[in-house]
């Protein structure tokens, strides 16, 4: 599994022959790419309906969009998306060579329209090479994209304990999501081997020095390796687990 960060919360996840793009938003200072520069993924996953997470969903017309049923219907109407898959918390869907499980995120949500602002529930995704089960699976590789979230005990009691991600992308920007110290606690609770900060330096309220997050992770006693990626840089999770 390869994980490429395009800044903010935008990740390309490659699982064998399947490419997934999470929260496409290329108007951020960490990426040198525009949507036109990006090879069309088979699937686009949306964590929630805020503009800095769905802005460029319409730029990939050949991709299938995965989101909650409400958000899927919204992007069909507002962005002209043709193919969608609606799912919800606890559900797992098979997407090509990947399995995707949706979990909750603690955040607000809204869809901006000309007539109202409404919304559904914000989410997070676990992307894995095999379907999650209670049986140990040493061959499985898994990546947890936490979405926009605050610290929540489900990270310790459910996601870390039962979904057992190998790597996590966590927001560290503070103000709208966790900041470095709460994201460090989340790292420890999740028990991941690798952690990658996201959702920072895009706007003035979320400017951060990611080295602060690295120090906070060490202070928890976590053994997780912190990867401070540059924009458009790829981390090879498969190699990291060898």
Quick structural overview:
By secondary structure, the protein is an alpha/beta fold. It contains six helices and 16 strands.
Could you give the topology of this structure?
Elements: E1 2-5, E2 11-15, E3 18-22, E4 43-45, H1 51-54, E5 64-67, H2 69-79, E6 84-86, E7 92-95, E8 98-104, E9 111-112, E10 117-118, E11 123-128, E12 142-145, H3 154-163, E13 167-171, H4 180-190, E14 194-198, H5 210-220, E15 225-226, E16 233-236, H6 237-240
Parallel strand pairs: 3-4, 4-5, 5-6, 12-13, 13-14, 14-15
Antiparallel strand pairs: 1-2, 1-16, 2-3, 7-8, 8-11, 9-10, 11-12
How many H/I helical runs? Answer: 6
Strand order of the largest sheet: 6-5-4-3-2-1-16
- What coarse outline follows from CA principal-axis ratios? globular
What is the number of domains? 1
CATH topology: Metallo-beta-lactamase, Chain A
Question: What is the first-to-last residue Cα distance?
Answer: 12 Å
Low-confidence stretches: none
The Rg value, from CA coordinates, equals 16 Å
Helix content: 10-25%
The tally of strands reads: 16
CATH homolog superfamily: Ribonuclease Z/Hydroxyacylglutathione hydrolase-like
Chain-averaged pLDDT: 95
Q: In the CATH hierarchy, what is the class? A: Alpha Beta
Largest sheet: 7 strands, mixed
Name the CATH architecture.
4-Layer Sandwich
Q: What does it look like?
A:
There is one protein chain. The chain has 242 residues and is of the alpha/beta class. It has a single domain, classed as Ribonuclease Z/Hydroxyacylglutathione hydrolase-like (Metallo-beta-lactamase, Chain A, 4-Layer Sandwich), CATH 3.60.15.10. It is built from six helices and 16 strands. It has a seven-stranded mixed beta sheet with strand order 6-5-4-3-2-1-16. A seven-stranded mixed beta sheet has the order 7-8-11-12-13-14-15, with helices on one face. The protein has a two-stranded antiparallel sheet with strand order 9-10. The radius of gyration is 16 Å and the shape is globular. The model has no long low-confidence stretch (mean pLDDT 95).
